[in-house]
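in:
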């Protein structure tokens, strides 16, 4: 059974909700003036004998010391210098209300606007042993990398508000990256929610996310014997997402006994998504024993979706008794002005329905090029004013090719599309996914994108400088019809810069391993923006990870040949992440590679005396660590 969600927002009053989101962004932008009690400085390298945080020379050495000082003063700001901050208890820091923490300082700044959180990474590291930070209501964490946190709830962060933060490689049973609260302009990458037979919200659990990206997060559940497995919300579980992008997230459930394996919402589970893109997310369920498997909503499960794009998401289920796979893009709920293409529902049996969507109410939507053995495009309750390949009963529906500009990457509508002006204005959102006002023509368009007036500029032609450097450099040339003013970013609608004449972009910091797509648009004299020109660069991870092994908690002796190994590793902030480990007693014969875990039971060679255990780690790019080791003396019981 899933836990009770903390927030349930019905996405009906779209314009009012959007205004509320803008108000929240303005509030966060002005947070500096909201905490006027004082400024306290923190520097991990501080050696001040009597730190008071009143200058960089007398900075506190830990986040907790600075937070305690600010709380004692009735609130204030913590300016935190670049570096890595760790702890020794259940969490690196606990932050009471009325405090704002700002990362990205080089040291020496005298004004908040002088910081640069991209150039000066400020890392809160849970070392895979503790939560990174617990945040009370009214407290903000701004400009930090939150990494390697571990807890039952909110491995990276619990509660509060996060702005301009990166959550990476955190884990928990519920909310691997963040549990509840508010996230603005944040990146959630490679976080995991798993606790045996359940896992909810790999990136974030409940709360509000605005202008965020969720990439490669996972909710994982494994059930054995009579235990079922339930995984939901690989990217986000519940809450509200506005202007967010969900890419490559996973909800995965596996059982080995006789119970049900259920996975739901590879990208997002339940509640509200507005102006979001769901691409390449998946929900998978495997019943390897004598159980059944069900997977629902590769992109999103339940709730409402408005001005959203669902492309190349999938569900897959395999069960010994039975299996069912429903809603490759969206499972249950309501869709308004959404575009579905290239989604897939697959199962071992024939119970595959709704490659695009299953059991939903849809209006002003496009379903084209989705796949399932039954009802490939959608299995709908009420579908009106929508374009459905193969047709669908309902008022205003059409079955003609929508004329995408370039599926799956560019789903805008070309001139002459049958979807132009053929939607309905009833309850339609006031703007489209990119912020263009609806309608542009005689009526509202179907799908997530509202076509601008005829004569919009052509998409820029985007490439790269070919240097192979990291950070890489993208370059572009005009497509024609514009005035040489561009906006660009790593997700449509989330722009790094707007109205610049630049024709090249180099990110300020190295990018993590994997593919990175830059979207570039050009503006014309009337303010119309072109479709996006795109180019994808792949960053390779060639650096070896580092690791350590500790036997029996660093004990000197043992009377048993069976010992407990504690494992830690680090693949760097830009690495692909450690995925496998292996062991040896002699450095010659090694155990098979196995999934990386923080604890391992190991058998020493027979006999007494000193015994050495060697360990090695492998990251997802195939780089091996140096061999690390620890030793212990086996004595006669």
């Amino acid at each position: 059974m899933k836990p009770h969600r903390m927030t349930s927002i019905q996405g009906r009053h779209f314009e009012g909700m959007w205004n509320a989101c803008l108000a929240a962004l303005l509030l966060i932008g002005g947070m500096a003036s909201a905490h006027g009690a004082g400024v306290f400085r923190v520097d991990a390298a501080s050696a001040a004998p009597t730190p008071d945080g009143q200058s960089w020379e007398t900075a506190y050495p830990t986040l907790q010391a600075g937070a305690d000082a600010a709380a004692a003063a009735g609130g204030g700001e913590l300016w935190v210098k670049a570096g890595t901050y760790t702890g020794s208890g259940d969490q690196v820091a606990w932050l009471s209300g009325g405090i704002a923490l700002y990362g990205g300082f080089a040291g020496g700044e005298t004004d908040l606007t002088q910081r640069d959180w991209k150039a000066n990474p400020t890392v809160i590291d849970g070392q895979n042993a503790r939560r990174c930070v617990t945040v009370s209501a009214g407290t903000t964490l701004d400009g930090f990398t939150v990494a390697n946190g571990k807890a039952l709830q909110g491995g990276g962060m619990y509660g509060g508000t996060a702005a301009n933060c990166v959550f990476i490689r955190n884990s928990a049973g519920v909310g691997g990256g963040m549990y509840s609260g508010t996230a603005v302009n944040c990146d959630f990458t490679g976080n995991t929610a798993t606790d045996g037979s359940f896992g909810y919200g790999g990136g974030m659990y409940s709360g509000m996310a605005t202008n965020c990206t969720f990439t490669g997060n996972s909710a994982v559940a494994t059930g054995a014997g009579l235990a079922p497995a339930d995984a939901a919300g690989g990217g986000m579980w519940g809450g509200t997402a506005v202007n967010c992008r969900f890419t490559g997230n996973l909800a995965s459930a596996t059982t080995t006994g006789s119970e049900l394996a259920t996975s739901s919402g590879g990208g997002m589970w339940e509640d509200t998504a507005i102006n979001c893109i769901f691409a390449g997310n998946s929900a998978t369920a495997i019943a390897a024993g004598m159980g059944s498997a069900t997977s629902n909503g590769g992109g999103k499960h339940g709730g409402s979706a408005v001005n959203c794009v669902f492309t190349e998401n999938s569900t897959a289920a395999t069960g010994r008794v039975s299996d069912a796979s429903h809603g490759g893009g969206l499972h249950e709920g309501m869709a308004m002005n959404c575009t579905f293409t290239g989604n897939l529902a697959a199962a071992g049996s024939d119970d595959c329905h709704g490659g695009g969507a299953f059991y939903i109410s849809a209006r002003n939507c496009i379903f084209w090029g989705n796949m399932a053995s039954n009802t490939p495009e959608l299995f709908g309750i009420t579908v009106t004013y929508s374009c459905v390949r193969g047709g669908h009963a309902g008022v205003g529906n059409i079955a003609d090719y929508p004329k995408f500009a370039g599926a799956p990457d560019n789903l805008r509508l070309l001139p002459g599309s049958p979807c132009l002006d053929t939607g309905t204005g009833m309850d339609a959102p006031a703007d489209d996914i990119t912020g263009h006002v609806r309608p542009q023509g005689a009526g509202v368009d179907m799908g997530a994108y509202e076509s601008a007036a005829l004569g919009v500029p052509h998409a820029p032609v985007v490439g790269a400088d070919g240097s192979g450097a990291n950070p890489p450099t993208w370059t572009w040339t005009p497509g024609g019809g514009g005035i040489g003013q561009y906006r660009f970013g790593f997700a449509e609608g989330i722009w790094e810069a707007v109205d610049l004449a630049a024709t090249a972009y180099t990110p300020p910091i190295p990018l993590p391993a994997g593919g990175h797509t830059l979207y570039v648009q050009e503006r014309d004299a009337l303010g119309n923006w072109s479709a996006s020109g795109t180019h994808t660069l792949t960053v390779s991870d060639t650096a070896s990870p580092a690791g350590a092994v500790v036997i029996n908690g660093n004990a000197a002796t043992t009377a048993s040949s069976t010992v407990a190994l504690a494992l830690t590793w680090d693949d760097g902030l830009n690495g692909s992440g450690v995925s496998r480990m292996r062991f040896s007693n002699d450095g010659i014969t090694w155990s098979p590679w196995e999934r990386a875990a923080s604890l391992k039971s190991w058998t020493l060679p027979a006999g007494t005396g000193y015994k050495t255990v060697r360990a090695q780690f492998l990251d997802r790019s195939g780089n091996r660590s140096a061999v690390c080791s620890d030793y212990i003396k086996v004595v006669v019981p």
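note: The mean pLDDT is 89.
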